[in-house]
Amino acid sequence: MGYIDAHTHIVFRETVTEELINFALREWGASREALTMSVSDVVKILDDADIDYVGIMAYPSRKLGIAKEDYAIRVVDAVRDYADRFAVIGGVEANELSIEETRYWLERQYEAGISAIKIHPPHMWLKPNAYRPEEGGLRQLELVYQFAEDHGLPVYIHTGTSAFSRARNKYGDPIFVDDVAVDFPRLTIIMSHVGRPNWVPTAFQLIRIRPNIIADLSSIPPRRVLEYLPRLTEIGDKAIYGSDYPGPGVHDIKANLREFLNIPIPREVMKKIVDDNPRKVLKPLSRNR
Known about the structure:
Layout: E1 3-8, H1 18-28, H2 32-35, H3 39-49, E2 51-57, H4 70-79, E3 86-90, H5 99-112, E4 116-119, H6 121-124, H7 139-151, E5 155-158, H8 175-183, E6 189-192, H9 200-209, E7 213-216, H10 225-228, E8 239-240, H11 253-261, H12 267-281
Parallel strand pairs: 1-2, 2-3, 3-4, 4-5, 5-6, 6-7, 7-8
């Protein structure tokens, strides 16, 4: 059985910029070697780890100064020769673009073949429900959710804190995701990091009661998953594995997976989290052609 790692921040020699390298060295603590591998180098690492495919975050983050909307398209183009090994997660910064620009970039990324959309509230400095009239009525963000719902794209929403120096962590509260789940019932929402470390109980309850919210377990050290989520098996049908590699503290994608596989939960639940569930919600580039 091969595994799925649904949340990584892998970058490639073919697409990385010096600006992104410097940011990752400074803020992630990643090695320069990990940030300058070729696509084929990464495929060899996935083969060794028995990982069938990975999700790669390629969303824009002007506030952090590392990417804009064209980045996702460049990543898709770079991995096309290995389209069955990668799912590219794009996105737009709705509070930085006009309605027309938002629609343009969503359409371009979709045509390129993205597998999902990412919204990172602490990095984008906006609430996930900022489209609501009482939250400012940001129509561009409503367009993002509507586009994703109409085109069958899941939306990752970061919840919990970010240690990056320019992050605004007040936006990381998962309670704001509840509005999105209610207002867009056909949308699959992947709640990244389940609110760790501050808001895990809120995130867990929303995952339990909202049928369209999925738990993304990335960035929680595997040895601490059951500390944060002692009732993990209750959401075993709605949880997916992710490593966050090569993000802060995750320096070996294979070792992180092996540690996760040793979590003492029933094997049938483990298989759902590392295999069955992510295959259902996140398709590789080859399936999007």
